[in-house]
Amino acid sequence: MFKGYMATVTLREDRVDFKRSLVARLGGNRSSTVLLGDVLKIPRREPTRQVNGHIHLLTAQDDGLLRAASMSPEKTVAGNPRAIMFTWQQRQGHADFFAAVEQAWQRCDPSR
After folding, report:
1. d(Cα 112, Cα 104) in Å, to the nearest integer?
2. In whole angstroms, what is the distance from residue 101 CA to residue 50 CA?
3. Contact predicate 84/54, CB 8 Å
4. 31 contacts 56 by C-beta, under 8 angstroms
5. How far apart are CA 109 and CA 76, in angstroms?
6. Which letter does DSSP use for residue 101 in this model?
7. Cα 64 to Cα 83: distance, rounded to the nearest angstrom
8. Residue 107: helix, strand or coil by DSSP?
9. Phi/psi of residue 79, each to 5°?
10. How far is Cα of residue 78 from the mean position of the Cα atoms in its chain?
11. Distance of alpha carbon 66 from alpha carbon 12, whole angstroms
12. What is the structure's pLDDT at 73?
């Protein structure tokens, strides 16, 4: 299990479970499960002292890369159910989760 900003992710053999905190759910975000076989790519942004980082499991449900602001919450980093944010203090968790999920994703389809 990996702890991000207002969410935790659990990496399983074939999927990733995103669990949002109560505050995040009250803000409109939702928990979700993503099958690793559905992931097209894994864009990420490293957390810095000024800006939170994120890891996004991009699937066919997504309309491209995430933005900082949009009229549609699912197009934003904070509102997408297939993304998790990390603060500067959580940067090691960001690195650990990215390494683990990328390795699991490669195992699902070695041709990547």
Report:
1. 12
2. 25
3. yes
4. no
5. 28
6. H
7. 13
8. helix
9. -105, -5
10. 10
11. 24
12. 65
**Spatial distance between the Cα atoms of 84 and 111, rounded to a whole number of angstroms:** 26
Cα gap 66→58, rounded to integer Å? 9
pLDDT single digits (tens) 84-110:
999 999 999 999 999 999 999 999 876
**Residue 35 token pair:** 């099958």
Q: Which pLDDT score is estimated for 5? A: 92
Half-sphere exposure of 26 (CA within 13 A, CB side): 4
CATH number for the region 2-108 comes to 2.30.29
Only one residue has tokens 């803000």, namely 27
Spans of all domains in the chain: 2-108
Residues 6+ apart with CB under 8 A from 46: 53, 91, 94
CA angle 13, 58, 101 (to 5 degrees): 30
The encoded tokens of residue 20 equal: 């949002």
Say whether pTM exceeds 0.70. yes
Query: What one-letter code names the amino acid at 10?
Result: T
Q: What percent of the chain has pLDDT over 90?
A: 66
